[in-house]
Design brief:
Elements: H1 14-22, H2 27-35, H3 42-46, H4 53-60, H5 75-79, H6 103-106, H7 111-114, H8 127-135, H9 140-149, H10 153-159, H11 165-174, H12 178-187, H13 192-204, H14 208-221, H15 227-242
């Protein structure tokens, strides 16, 4: 078993960060460990990164209190699309394995280029998933999260209940209204999602010194069995490297 990342006192190697983040999340991590290679560039490992749809679904429904049930149509197709994300909030529909390419995070960290701009187009296709979203209005938070995930922001906003504060802040974030999202997360009571999202938002708004204590709190708040804990540790390492 690979030990979890602890708060680093010295800059960890890129190989260590990549392997630890992907551990138990894909077959790429195991391949990296078994190969015994001493020099592995993050983008080279990520190229072989296949997301386990079930693990991604578990993390995508982490914030929901009710059981999410079986995987929706097109989920496996969606989670293994090559588009990379970097600044991923903990919210329904999102999953930490979206962070595929660690190279921009660990080398030349440019927060403004890595956070959402709100200009992306909806993901094409995925007819089965879109039909599932339209039919599952009894699960509005999950349906809205999946609509947000595929870039249907207007549909997501219509579906969201008024009291879904974390989800509304995540929608602001994905729409590129990142300062507003951080303000919303900062006003929420402490919870694993709110704590994680404050730290993530501070990091990608370039407020690295403020991000460190928030991310430390997220590492403590999010269960170690969750992929979100691994992502919190990764973001904390990024803050340590570039802080």
């Amino acid at each position: 078993m690979i030990n979890p990342i602890t708060t680093p006192t010295t800059q960890p190697s890129l190989q260590d960060l990549m392997v630890r983040f992907l551990a138990n999340r894909s077959d790429a991590a195991l391949a990296a460990v078994e190969s015994g290679e001493g020099e592995v560039e993050p983008h080279e490992v990520a190229a072989g990164f296949r997301v386990d749809p079930r693990a991604a679904w578990t993390d995508a429904t982490n914030t929901l209190t009710a059981a999410a049930g079986s995987l929706p149509p097109d989920w496996a197709t969606l989670v293994n699309q090559p588009a990379a994300a970097f600044a991923v909030p903990m919210a329904a529909g999102n999953f930490p394995q979206r962070v595929r390419d660690l190279h921009p995070l660990l080398t030349k960290f440019e927060p403004a280029e890595l956070r959402p701009s709100g200009t992306q187009h909806p993901t094409p296709g995925l007819t089965g998933l879109r039909s599932w979203i339209a039919k599952n209005t009894t699960q509005p938070v999950l349906a809205a999260g999946l609509a947000r995930l595929i870039g249907d922001f207007d549909a997501a906003e219509k579906l969201l209940p008024a009291d879904a504060a974390n989800e509304r802040a995540a929608l602001l974030w994905h729409r590129g209204r990142c300062d507003e999202a951080l303000a919303a997360w900062s006003q929420m009571p402490d919870s694993p999602a709110a704590t994680f999202n404050r730290g993530m938002a501070l990091l990608f708004l370039g407020r690295v010194a403020e991000a460190k204590p928030a991310l430390n709190a997220a590492v403590a708040a999010v269960p170690e069995t969750s992929g979100w804990n691994a992502l919190a540790r990764l973001y904390l390492s990024v803050a340590e490297i570039h802080g």
